[in-house]
């Protein structure tokens, strides 16, 4: 169901790799970029990570696109995910 898919995606974003003992590779490891410079290249790496991990750990969804815009002046990325 739709609510179950949303919960699973939230779990993927809220779980660090290694946090689940039985599935240590589960989760997103985007915190590694937390103190890196805001750049197009790092944004592409974050986008690739999100795309691959969501596709891997939630097979009930199809990730069409992950668009990331680096906004260094605001010290942020704008992330849009099309599912």
Description:
A hairpin with a 4-residue loop joins β1 and β2. A two-stranded antiparallel sheet has the order 1-2. The model has no long low-confidence stretch (mean pLDDT 92). It starts with a helix and ends with a strand. The relative contact order is 0.17. The longest helix has 18 residues. It is 37% helix and 17% strand. The protein has 83 residues and is an alpha+beta fold.
Q: What is this entry, summarized?
A:
The chain is an alpha+beta fold and 83 residues long.
Low-confidence stretches: none
Question: Within the largest sheet, what's the order of strands?
Answer: 1-2
Number of DSSP helical runs: 2
Tell me the number of strands. 2
Terminal CA distance reads 15 Å
From the spread of the alpha carbons, the general shape counts as globular
Q: Secondary-structure element order, as H and E?
A: HHEE
Largest sheet: 2 strands, antiparallel
The radius of gyration computed from the alpha-carbon positions, rounded to a whole number of angstroms, is 13 Å
Percent in strands: 15-25%
What class, by secondary structure content?
Answer: alpha+beta
Q: Roughly how much helix do the residues carry, as a percent range?
A: 25-40%
Average predicted local confidence, pLDDT: 92
Task: Please give the structural blueprint.
Elements: H1 2-14, H2 40-57, E1 65-71, E2 76-82
Antiparallel strand pairs: 1-2
